[in-house]
From TrEMBL:
InterPro entries: MFS_trans_sf (IPR036259), Proton-linked_MCT (IPR050327). SUPFAM superfamilies: MFS general substrate transporter. The keyword Membrane applies. This is Major facilitator superfamily (MFS) profile domain-containing protein. The chain crosses the membrane at residues 51-74. Gene3D superfamilies: MFS general substrate transporter like domains. Coiled coil: none annotated. The keyword Transmembrane applies. Keywords: Membrane, Transmembrane, Transmembrane helix.
Length: 130
């Protein structure tokens, strides 16, 4: 699509598509709990001072880096070093094929060791390997 209409219009069309899908999905949302009256800023400050909360926040940062950094930066690096956009496209294709195998395998593993343990192992591997 980029070759036909250009990069900017491809991003615009992708944005329109995401808005249309998200907008139609948001119409099906149902409020489960009522909103809280007023915010309690003392609670927020208490959470920031809690060491357990900060450890969870740091762990989530590394988990997200493990999931998204390879997908975003490796194709760019491959295109910069080889000068070939086809190489970057092939790397994205390999990542997507790997996630397909990983999704199927994670179901089998979670049946064997439990979903929480499978998620823990997956997050640990993503954080360590990247």
């Amino acid at each position: 699509m980029i070759e036909r209409i250009g990069y900017r219009w491809s991003l615009r069309m992708l944005g329109i598509l995401i808005i249309a899908i998200s907008g139609s999905a948001s119409m099906a949302y149902k409020r489960r709990i009522s909103p809280v009256e007023g915010s309690n800023s003392a609670l927020l400050l208490m959470l920031v001072r809690d060491a357990r909360f900060l450890c969870v926040a740091a762990a989530l940062l590394f988990i997200n880096m493990g999931y998204f950094a390879p997908l975003l930066y490796v194709p760019t690096l491959a295109a910069a070093q080889s000068g070939n956009k086809g190489t970057a496209s092939n790397i994205v294709l390999a990542f997507n094929a790997g996630t397909t195998a990983g999704r199927l395998l994670s179901g089998v593993i979670s049946d064997a060791i439990g979903p929480s343990n499978a998620n823990l192992v997956s997050n640990l591997l993503c954080g360590v390997l990247v």
